[in-house]
Amino acid sequence: MSTDEQDAKTLELPWPFTGRDAELELVRGASAVGRPGIVVTAPAGHGKTRLITEAVRDTEHTLVTGTPEARNLPLAAFAHLLPDSVSPHRAVRILSGVRLLVVDDAHLLDEASAAVVHQLAVHGRTRLVVAAVDGAPAPAAVSRLWTGELLPRLALEPLPCEDTALLLAAAGLEPLTVRRLHRMCQGDLRLLRDLVAALGQAGRLTSVPGTRERAWRGALPVTAAVRERVAPVLERAHPGERDILERLAFAEPLPLPVDHFDLAVLERLETDGLIRVDDQGDAVTLAVPLHGAALRATAGRLRARRLASGAPAAYGPALEAEERLLVRRIEHLDVRALPTPVGEWLVAESALLPAGYAAVRARFARLRGEVRDAAAWAREGLRGAPGDAACLTELRSADGELGEAGGGDAYDPYNAVRLGEPERAAGRLPAGSVLARHADALARGDGAGLDRVAEDLEERGFSLFAAEARAQAVRVHRDPRAARVSRTRAVALARRCQGARTPALAGLVLGELTARQRQIVTLAAAGLSNREIAERLTLSVRTVGNHLYSAYSRLGTGDRGALPWLVELPECESA
Fold first, then answer.
1. Which of 66, 484, 552, 557 is the most buried (most CB within 10 A)?
2. 568 or 324: whose pLDDT is higher?
3. How many helices (H) and strands (E) does the chain have?
4. Are 530 and 536 in contact (CB under 8 A)?
């Protein structure tokens, strides 16, 4: 079997349930005995059914599903549970004996089935777990389940990028590819699976030198699922509309005013949600990242060559503007996420990225705690300039997390604070800054002060620094309850940081694992294989693998190499 065939088979395996811990507990709690149930809503493909399946697993329940083919057939959804020619009133009486009823795709129920579900909710003897697609037309009886406050509603948010990365861990994808896929799919996990499978089957995932990761560069595979989702742009009939959309696909953002475009057409596209004007009103971009990728992939060679002919010159100033913005945000201690479409487009198209931009982008990512992203951006800069000192420094810094001195700014002395040695930073941090307040709270052993600093750091985008401040608070809190809260919040923040390993976080998250998970993680950290662990603990290899995967999810990493750090419990750790 070829490597590509093996990759394709790996990518076709069922994906494990990942993330959604809080949502899972919410659904379980709402469907417990004595509770009325819950309605889960989200756009199609966002994981509603999988969440509910996990929540009711090993719980006795009855399942009904709405289907488009049966929307005009009375009580079609309940046909397998009811006798023929039963009235809705009689159906409610029969179904009242069901203790837990799961209703999937409730927006597709026929009117009679929807009315039965509504009446079961009114009577309250049957616990209901209902899934419906956001924005889709639904019978009034279904929408009244939550608008009438019969059942609480959980509006499912898209899976965060860090959880998407864990979901894709088995595919061995490098972080910029993961972010590109996450951006393209915008929470649609069915589309994500479709794209990853298509890339694997077509051999479009290439090895990243110096790593065990693979990257996707170049055009979007236009699968049937992709065509379905980009139909709003591919099927625009007005030639002026298609021209604007394609120009944006090859040259966004375009500065305003765009004199050679019909203003009425631009307004129509904005009204239809296909383009977006920035907050300053200075530039226009495509509203959906997938649309631009699809338009580029379907343009045809000659048209693509013509549309892209002026791109390199046009992108120079825009890329420089992005770099200046990143530098300014770093200097102002503000690394909250911001759109940088130019750099991301160039990487996606496998264009050589200027080393200066790449180094700044790497540093911005590292300060956010996105250490794997930082390494990937630095490698992008080194592709075109292999000896660039700034990119090499950022690559080493991403590997070590604390970074190296040499920037000559506030972040250099701040490393001493992160190491737990605030006295070394005395007088070297900007007065009154969040970094100086961190040093002061740590020097005084002020747990509450460290928690407040962590809140400020998190608000500014410094997830890793905030996690470290919370971890330091755990060690100085005298109140065990306050220490537990700080630990929980530190772990949540650390999970965003792509397995970052720093002294402040050492051993912190191990306490979040079950006893069996800790045992298996400790053996894995010592270098034992899954089979060796299974033999030592008298478990199956599959069970060991499942425990490790659950541990990875809790630890916020899919990297087995991070385990030795995670099991190092410092002597000063308390609580």
1. 557
2. 324
3. 29, 10
4. no
Q: 127-133 and 100-104 as β-strands: parallel, antiparallel, unpaired?
A: parallel
Distances (CA, A) of 473 to 115, 146, 411, 437, 451: 53, 41, 21, 13, 6
- The DSSP annotation for 385-407 comes to -TT-HHHHHHHHHHHHSS--S-S
For 529, phi then psi, to 5°, come to: -75, 165
What's phi and psi for 368, nearest 5 deg? -75, -10
Quote the tokens at residue 35: 């509770």
Q: Token digits for 427?
A: 């007088």
Tell me which residue has tokens 């065509």.
Answer: 227
Separation between Cα atoms, residue 414 and residue 282, nearest integer Å: 37
Distance of CA 556 to the CA centre of its chain: 12
Q: Can you give the three-state secondary structure of 558-572, one letter per residue?
A: CCHHHHHHHCCCCCC
Asked if residue 153 lies in contact with residue 129, where contact means CB atoms within 8 angstroms, the answer is no
b/e map of 312-336 (b: 16 or more CB within 10 Å)? eebbeebbeebbeebeebbeebebe
**What phi and psi, each to the nearest 5 degrees, are found at residue 528?**
-75, 145
Pick from 199, 191, 270, 182: nearest CA to 227: 191
Q: In what order do the strands lie in the sheet with 254-255?
A: 254-255, 283-286, 275-277
Q: Cα separation of 24 and 55, whole Å?
A: 6
- The backbone torsions φ and ψ at residue 410, rounded to the nearest 5 degrees and listed phi first, read -65, -25
- The sign of the CA dihedral 136, 65, 98, 32 is negative
Phi, psi (rounded to 5 degrees) for 306: -70, -45
DSSP track, 185-203: HTT-HHHHHHHHHHHHHTT
What per-residue string of b and e applies to 96-126 under the rule 16 or more CB within 10 Å gives b? eebebbbbbbbbbbbbbbbbbbbbbbeeeeb
CA distances to 62, 120, 129, 470 from 126, in Å: 11, 6, 10, 43
Q: Kindly report, residue by residue over 406-427, the tens digit of the pLDDT.
A: 455 789 999 999 999 999 999 9
Yes or no: say if 259 and 244 are a contact pair by the CB < 8 Å rule: no
Phi, psi of 64 (to 5 degrees): -130, 150
* Average pLDDT of the chain to the nearest whole number: 87
Query: What type of residue sits at position 39?
Result: V
Distance between CA 305 and CA 307 in Å, rounded? 6
Percent of the chain whose predicted confidence (pLDDT) is above 90: 59
Q: Smallest Cα–Cα separation from 20: which of 50, 44, 43, 41?
A: 50
Task: Report d(CA 67, CA 229) in Å as an integer.
Answer: 20
pLDDT in tens, 518-547: 888 888 877 788 889 999 999 988 888 888
Contact 249/291 with Cβ under 8 angstroms?
A: yes
What are the distances in angstroms from CA 433 to CA 410, 423, 430, 478, 557?
10, 16, 6, 26, 31
Give strand ranges (E) for 221-376: 254-255, 275-277, 283-286
Residue 365, H or E segment: helix 355-367
Q: CA-to-CA distance for 350 and 562, rounded, in angstroms?
A: 29
